[in-house]
From TrEMBL:
<comment type="similarity">
    <text>Belongs to the ATPase delta chain family.</text>
</comment>
<keyword id="KW-0139">CF(1)</keyword>
<keyword id="KW-0406">Ion transport</keyword>
<keyword id="KW-0813">Transport</keyword>
<dbReference type="InterPro" id="IPR026015">
    <property type="entry name" value="ATP_synth_OSCP/delta_N_sf"/>
</dbReference>
<keyword id="KW-0375">Hydrogen ion transport</keyword>
<dbReference type="InterPro" id="IPR020781">
    <property type="entry name" value="ATPase_OSCP/d_CS"/>
</dbReference>
<protein>
    <recommendedName>
        <fullName>ATP synthase subunit delta</fullName>
    </recommendedName>
</protein>
<dbReference type="InterPro" id="IPR000711">
    <property type="entry name" value="ATPase_OSCP/dsu"/>
</dbReference>
<dbReference type="Pfam" id="PF00213">
    <property type="entry name" value="OSCP"/>
</dbReference>
<comment type="function">
    <text>This protein is part of the stalk that links CF(0) to CF(1). It either transmits conformational changes from CF(0) to CF(1) or is implicated in proton conduction.</text>
</comment>
<dbReference type="GO" id="GO:0046933">
    <property type="term" value="F:proton-transporting ATP synthase activity, rotational mechanism"/>
</dbReference>
<keyword id="KW-0472">Membrane</keyword>
<keyword id="KW-1003">Cell membrane</keyword>
<comment type="function">
    <text>F(1)F(0) ATP synthase produces ATP from ADP in the presence of a proton or sodium gradient. F-type ATPases consist of two structural domains, F(1) containing the extramembraneous catalytic core and F(0) containing the membrane proton channel, linked together by a central stalk and a peripheral stalk. During catalysis, ATP synthesis in the catalytic domain of F(1) is coupled via a rotary mechanism of the central stalk subunits to proton translocation.</text>
</comment>
<dbReference type="GO" id="GO:0005886">
    <property type="term" value="C:plasma membrane"/>
</dbReference>
<dbReference type="GO" id="GO:0045259">
    <property type="term" value="C:proton-transporting ATP synthase complex"/>
</dbReference>
Length: 178
C-alpha cells in the first residue's frame, strides 16, 4: 500500500496545484472521485490491464466512460496517467487529493462510532472539543455499533481515540499484567 501512495503522491499534488490555481477544488474533487470509481470497475480494470492497447487507446476508452464528469484539465490529467501507465492509481490519487484539500481548507472529517446514538448536544460539544484539539473545522459523522459495551471510537485522519469500555478494560488489564 505504501508503494502505491508513493507513486500516487506526485500526481495528487499536481492535481491539487492545478485545482488551487483554477480555484476549483470541489470540481477536481468530484472529477477524481468519479474517475477513481470508474477505475475500480471490474470491466474497466480488465481494459486497463490489456497489454494490446496503447496508452492513447486506454485513455480514449477510459474517457469515453466518464468524460462528461471531467473538464479539459481533467481529461488531460487522465491522458497523462495513461501515458505513464498510472490509471490504476486513481483511487489513491483521489484519496491523497482529498487529504490535501482538507488540509488547505482546514477541515477534518471525523467518524464517531458509539454504543448509543449521539444527541445533537453531545455531537455539538464533541465537535467543539475536537475542533480545538485539531485546530480545524470538524465535519462529524456518527454511527451506532450496538456491539460496543459503552463509549465511542473516534477516527480523525490517522488518529484513533478508543474511548470504549472494552478499550479501557483492555488498557487496565495490560497495566495490571505488566
Amino acid at each position: 500500500m505504501a508503494e502505491l501512495s508513493t507513486l500516487a503522491r506526485p500526481y495528487a499534488k499536481a492535481a491539487f496545484t492545478c485545482a488551487q490555481q483554477a480555484s476549483n477544488l470541489k470540481g477536481w474533487s468530484t472529477a477524481l472521485e468519479t474517475a477513481a470509481a470508474v477505475s475500480q470497475n471490474e470491466k474497466v480494470r480488465e481494459l486497463l490491464d490489456n497489454p494490446q492497447l496503447t496508452s492513447e487507446e486506454r485513455a480514449d476508452k477510459f474517457l469515453s466512460i466518464c468524460s462528461d464528469e471531467l473538464g479539459e484539465h481533467g481529461k488531460n490529467f487522465i491522458r497523462l496517467l495513461a501515458e505513464n501507465h498510472r490509471l490504476q492509481l486513481l483511487p489513491e490519487i483521489s484519496e491523497l487529493f482529498e487529504a490535501l484539500k482538507a488540509r488547505a481548507e482546514a477541515t477534518l472529517e471525523v467518524e464517531v462510532v458509539s454504543a448509543q446514538a449521539l444527541s445533537n448536544t453531545q455531537a455539538q460539544k464533541l465537535g467543539e472539543k475536537l475542533s480545538k484539539k485539531f485546530e480545524r473545522e470538524i465535519h462529524l459523522h456518527s454511527s451506532v455499533d450496538h456491539s460496543l459495551l459503552g463509549g465511542a471510537i473516534i477516527r480523525a485522519g490517522d488518529t484513533v481515540i478508543d474511548g470504549t469500555v472494552r478499550g479501557r478494560l483492555a488498557k487496565l488489564a495490560e497495566a495490571m499484567n505488566s
